[in-house]
């Protein structure tokens, strides 16, 4: 939807751009750019970065859970362990 002065909002422009990109590219394209992005992130960030985002993700997921303890590793712990293993 456009606003009164006929300019496109950022949200609408982003949505239209995303739709056009999805129409013009296949699954392999998105896999390739995701791989490149992951490699660039890995080169620019250290172990602590991955531990921090893993911890934040684990905390967010823990807040969504119903509190049942099934004996499995917590998501927070899995994020911290994953951060330790992600650095090459």
From TrEMBL:
Bias (Basic and acidic residues) ranges: 7-30, 58-78
Region Disordered, residue ranges: 1-88
Pfam family, one: KGG
InterPro entries recorded: Stress-induced_KGG_rpt, Stress/Virulence-Domain
Protein name: General stress protein
Organism of provenance: Peribacillus simplex
């Amino acid at each position: 939807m456009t606003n009164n002065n006929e300019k496109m909002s950022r949200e609408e422009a982003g949505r239209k751009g995303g739709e056009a990109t999805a129409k013009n590219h296949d699954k392999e394209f998105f896999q390739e750019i995701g791989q490149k992005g992951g490699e660039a992130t890995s080169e620019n960030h250290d172990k602590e970065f991955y531990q921090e985002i893993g911890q934040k993700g684990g905390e967010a997921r823990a807040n969504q859970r119903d509190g049942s303890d099934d004996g499995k590793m917590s998501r927070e712990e899995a994020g911290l362990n994953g951060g330790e293993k992600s650095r090459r």
